[in-house]
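Protein in question quoted for reference:
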Amino acid sequence: MAEPALFGAMLGLGVFLLIRALFPARPGLVARIGALDAARGEGGSGPRTRLVATDERLSAFRRGLGERLARFYAARGWEVRSIRADLALLGRSFEGFLATKALLAASGLLFSPLLAGWLALLGWGFSPQVPLWTAVLAAVVFFFLPDLQVRRDAAARRRDFRHAVGAFLDLVAMNLAGGRGVPEALMMAVSVGDDGNWAMARIREALGNARIVGITPWQALGRLGDEIDVDELRDLSAALALVADDGAKVRASLSARAATLRRRELAEIEGQAGERSQSMLVAQLLLCAGFLVFLSFPAAMKMLGV
């Protein structure tokens, strides 16, 4: 009874997908409001241009597949902001990410015929459900693998970016102490970093694009912080906005923020060192236990008469 039910379920799924392809769903309210805001230029305040450029080059097939999946997400209001922020920090496009997930899930479905052919060559009797459910499980695992990889890589890059922000705050405070204005201090601070420092290059790119977009440098830093989910940039944007609006003195505050970032980074490094020391201790204990078992095994077998 299971095989006819499974065949009927697959047939029904195929008919459902065919109907959805012939009669696509109408765009949701979120997608319509987003399109209206994009057409109006966000209420006349200028277009919301992304300040982080992607370095990923996609083939025509992956780009087309990713764009269709992105429209599918937008039509249903799935924003996935955390993944978008991680991808922006890594310099990867959301469309390429979605295409990778779909292609990996499709490759996971190939486990079904491969496993069935392998079991047939071995001459083992098997039920068709085993390769099928194995393929479904592999497709689900492969579908979520890019999320894990992106989150891991973005966490490491965000940690490095915070380290660069601490140095950037010190440089901005030094330039402000030299009598420069806020825009000049920001540009001079990012011009100190070499081209090999990717974090400074991102900040320099955002400040350069701010002139093209028509926003202030501190607003560009705030948008960059929103796009890559770095709270330190958002706090710096708010502090510099106070300087521009109210004439507040922020040089000492920037130095204090930089010192706080360094202390936080030092605490994280010490915590990671402690975790690694504990893991090494556990590995040494397991190695010693295995060696003791190896030494005592012959004597134990002889005493038991085996």
User: Anything to note?
Assistant: The CA atoms of residues 40 and 186 lie 31 Å apart.
